C-alpha cells in the first residue's frame, strides 16, 4: 500500500482527536508527521492489530515487546510526547481506548482495521504473564517474584552495576559526575543511620535481594542480619557474596516468606523496595507481622514506591503493562494509606522522606547501563525481555519526573509501653 504512513497518521488523528506528537514511519518506508520529532516505527501491520485488538497501554506494550513497534531518536522524548495519549488523562485529551469507544470515530476505526490486515489478534509475546491477579498467597507471591527476579543474575549485574541494589539510590548531587555506585552506597548508609544500627544488634532485611543491604549493615555497623527473599537466584548470589567477604558468621540469607519469619525479636527491620509486592488486602497483615517481630523501641525503615491518590479510592487500579510484563501482582498505594496502615498495626511513624527525583535519576542510570551493553543483555535474556526492561525503566523515570508516582522512606517505631522516646531530639542528623 502506497504511503501507509500518511494514511495511518490521518486515521490516528481522527480517532484520537489530536495531531500525533511524533513522526511515523510505516512498513512500506513512507513517513509522515512533524519533521525533527522522534520517529515511531510501525514495522508491520501486525503492530496495528495488536493495538486495535487491545486498545490502550497493553496493546502498545505488546507491539513494543514483540518488536513490531520501535522508536528512532531519544526514547524519553518520544515517551514524553506520547504520554498524553497513553498515560495522562487530564482535561479533554482522549486516550486511544477512550476514543475507540466513541461512536463518532468508529468510521476511522474501521479504516484502521482494514489497514491492519487480516482480522486475527496476534498471540501475546511469550514474556507476558496473564493469570488471576492479586491473590497474594504464598504460592502466587513466589511465582510473581520468580517471574521478575529470576531472569539471570548476569542480566541484573549489567543493569544495576556493581552495587546490585535494585531500589532508589540516594544522590548527594545530581551533577553528571555523581556515580550510581556512590549513590547506592549512600542510600544503604542512610537506611542504617535511620535505623540507628549498632554493633551487636540484630537486623531483619525483608526482601533482601542480592544481599547488598545485609552486607553493608554487617560490614559497616557490626550487626547480625537475617535476610529473606523468595528468589532462589537472589539467595544463591547473596550467599556467595557473603562468603567471599568472610561474613557468614554475621549474615544468614533465607528463601522464606516474610509471613513465616518467627525467630524475632529484632532490634531493627529494613524493607527496601519489597512492600510494593505485598498487596492492598495483605498490607495490614504485613505491617502487623513486622511490628510483632520488633523489640519494643525497635525501628522499621519502609522504603516504598507510592502512587497518587485517585478520585475514587475504592476503584481497582492497575498498570496493565507493569502487571503483565514486569511486576505481576504488584500494587502501589498512596503514601497516606501506607502511613495509616503502619499506624493501625501499632507503629508510631516518626519520619517520612520523599525521594522522587532520586528514583528518576537512578532509573536513567539503569537505562544507560542497559543500552550501553544491549547485545549482551539480549543474549542473557531475550530480545523481548530486554525491550520490557528498557520501556519499563524509561517510562518509570518519566513517571517520577512528572510526579505521577513517588517513593518514600518511612521510619516507624515500636514505641515502648511507657511511651518513652527512642529517637534523638534532632533525628535528621542521620543524613549522610
What does this structure look like?
The chain has helices at 4-16, 45-53, 57-65, 75-86, 96-100, 106-116, 138-149, 153-160, 180-195, 212-221, 232-244, 283-293, 320-326, 335-344, 356-372, 374-380, 383-401; strands at residues 23-25, 31-32, 39-42, 69-72, 202-206, 224-229, 251-255, 266-272, 294-307, 348-354, 405-413. The protein is an alpha/beta fold. It has 2 domains: 4-116, Nonspecific Lipid-transfer Protein, Chain A, CATH 3.30.1050; 138-430, 3-Layer(aba) Sandwich (Rossmann fold), CATH 3.40.50. A 7-stranded mixed β-sheet has the order 7-6-5-8-9-11-10. The protein has a 4-stranded mixed β-sheet with strand order 2-1-3-4. The radius of gyration is 23 Å and the shape is elongated. The chain starts with a helix and ends in a 19-residue tail after the last strand.
Shape: elongated
Which class of secondary structure composition applies to the elements? alpha/beta
Low-confidence stretches: 89-94
Strand order of the largest sheet: 7-6-5-8-9-11-10
Strand content: 15-25%
Q: How many β strands by DSSP? A: 11
The number of distinct structural domains comes to 2
Instruction: Assign a percent range to the helix content.
Output: 40-55%
- CATH architecture heading of the largest domain: 3-Layer(aba) Sandwich
Q: CATH homologous superfamily of the largest domain, by name?
A: Vaccinia Virus protein VP39
N-C termini distance: 61 Å
Oligomer kind: single chain
The overall average pLDDT, rounded, is: 88
Organism: Streptomyces murinus
EC number: 2.1.1.79
Family: Belongs to the CFA/CMAS family.
Domain Polyketide synthase-like methyltransferase: 155-416
